[in-house]
Amino acid sequence: MDLLIAGFETIARVDVMIALLVGSIGGVIIGAIPGVGPAVAIAILLPATFSLDPIVGLTLLLGIYGSSMYGGAIPAILINTPGTAVNALTTYDGYPMTRAGEARRALSLAYSASFFGGIFSVVCLVLLSQVLAAIAPMFGSREIFLAALLGVVLVVISHRGQSVIAAFLVSMGIFLNTIGLEPVRYSQRFTFEQTWLTSGIDLIVVVLGLFALSQAFLLLLERDHSPEAPPVEGGLFQGLGELRRYPRVVTTSSAFGVVMGIIPGVGEFLAQFFSYTLAMKTSKTPERFGNGAPEGLIASEAANNAVPAAAMIPLLALGIPGEALTAMMLSVFYVHNVVPGPQLFQDQADFVVGLYLALFILNILVLAFLMVSTNGILRLIRVPTRFLGVAILTLGFVGVYSLRNSATDCAVAAGFGVFGFVLRRLELPVVPIILGMVLGGIMEAKLRISMARVKTPLDFIDRPVAAIIFAIIVLAIGLHVWSLLRARRG
């Protein structure tokens, strides 16, 4: 109880509440506009958050992260176009319900399932905070190195059918992180006597290039269009009552979201996939899935909205981001010299609980906002795509230049923007590069510290937690290789 009170005191500030309100409402709007998405918005806003207090900046970014998937369900259901990538499964049953004249019911169920998933994950994780605080001291430099390595492995194997290119892109990210002065002896690495490379490749420059600028290039080169969505008539509160008819689906899907969110490199996609598959296999009417099944819509939305709170666990407890959005948030910690990791749960537990309470309040704000303003949001969906492209391009370059007032950074960001554009057009993943840069830095730092106490390779796994993580790495690689061999034989 004392911890909850301390958490409330942490966020009970005017600036924090304003950041939460702006982030939650802004995230819904950003998620509802196809072609933008939370990654682009967070990438653009990231430089601005460096001048804010850590709790204010993180609350703003969390607001966008946690609410964008609510908004992404609106175009997914009404016009068969997911507002964010993780709302793709929502189209399977949401749009058929719209075509059957049940748009209001579909939106109401999506909002209600999203709300349940978000609240469920926050409650679970607040209750687990004391457990996490007790476990965190067991993680030393070796354990965090192995956890980061596990994150790299999971990033690669989670891209089914693209494991080789994902491995290449993660390796590229790790390499990019080594450019510049190395952190111990300050010797130059891979600078090739170019002075502009001495300070290294900034993570935020790469983020803005790969996410914001590449998306702007896509929108500018696509055929200009303004999506049209039919207005929704009537109240949207019926889903809150109808959700009680599907307790098993919404609870298991939310639980999948929590578990998958905690595992680095997994995230919303696998949570949705497993939840949707389980809901279909256990349904009395599996033939309706893909044709307007309420259970399918509930499974998708509950799972993806349970992930954001859970994804903060590896970030806060170990300093290891699970996906691109939490990797961006990690930079906010570093700028303010707040070190996420085992000590954070011990020394600043009120800060951690405050972030979870902010997510709890966020879900209430978003649900209330959507219940009264869905038709207003529909007008924003009609923004011409090329106008969006110009706006994102302008804001992206402004954000890059504001970091260090460097035109060189703008040129580097433009180069990564073109590279990201090529990857997107080839339907190849962009996220592994960012995770490679972040996890590579963590692995290098922890490996250097560990080597002072390690005499043989076996010393890395001579402690229980390290041995368990190593066993999980071996098991994950073994299962992936086995599944590849099985698929080839089949």
Describe the protein.
By secondary structure, the protein is mainly alpha-helical. The protein has one domain. The chain contains 20 helices and two strands. A two-stranded antiparallel sheet has the order 1-2. The chain is globular. The model has no long low-confidence stretch (mean pLDDT 82).
In brief:
The chain is mainly alpha-helical.
Distance between the termini: 55 Å
Q: Helical residue percent? A: over 70%
Based on secondary structure, the structural category is mainly alpha
Element pattern in H and E? HHHHHHHHEEHHHHHHHHHHHH
Write the layout of secondary structure elements.
Blueprint lengths: L1 H10 L2 H19 L4 H13 L4 H25 L11 H10 L3 H33 L5 H18 L4 H16 L1 E2 L6 E2 L13 H19 L16 H5 L4 H16 L5 H14 L12 H25 L5 H12 L6 H6 L1 H33 L3 H20 L2 H19 L5 H20 L13 H26 L1
Antiparallel strand pairs: 1-2
Keywords:
490 residues, mainly alpha, two-stranded antiparallel sheet, globular
